[in-house]
Design brief:
InterPro entries: PCD_sf, Pterin_deHydtase. The chain is built from 3 helices and 4 strands, in the order H-E-E-H-E-E-H. With about 100 residues, the protein is α+β, with helices and mostly antiparallel strands. A hairpin with a 2-residue loop joins strand 3 and strand 4 (about 65-70). Helix 2 (about 35-55) packs antiparallel against helix 3 (about 80-95).
Length: about 100
């Protein structure tokens, strides 16, 4: 099982992941889609990536704002799996919105 990352490790990892913020026990990013359906399509793409990784985000959809929250529930905090999923979500956002 993957070890929990320290605060310093999280800070270092987030240097290459603009838009992601550390929160107690998680990584969080808000993405603004151009419209509601674009946000839903984004969620679908992220769901596919999450299934491939067998690591799933918490997702909140509020009109055009999609919030992704990543934590490794089994470990009670942030692990390399969360950082890797954050990286993949960022790639998907860039592909969809050029963000």
């Amino acid at each position: 099982m993957t070890d929990l990352l320290t605060d310093d490790q999280i800070t270092h990892a987030l240097r290459d992941l603009p838009g992601w913020q550390p929160r107690p026990g998680s990584l969080v990013r808000d993405v603004t889609a151009p419209d509601f359906l674009a946000g839903i399509a984004l969620v679908g793409d992220v769901a596919q990536a999450a299934e491939q990784m067998n690591h799933h985000p918490d997702i909140d959809i509020r009109w055009t704002t999609v919030t992704f929250s990543l934590t490794t529930h089994a470990r009670g905090g942030v692990t390399d799996n969360d950082v890797e999923l954050a990286r993949r979500i960022s790639e998907i956002v860039d592909q969809r919105f050029g963000d």
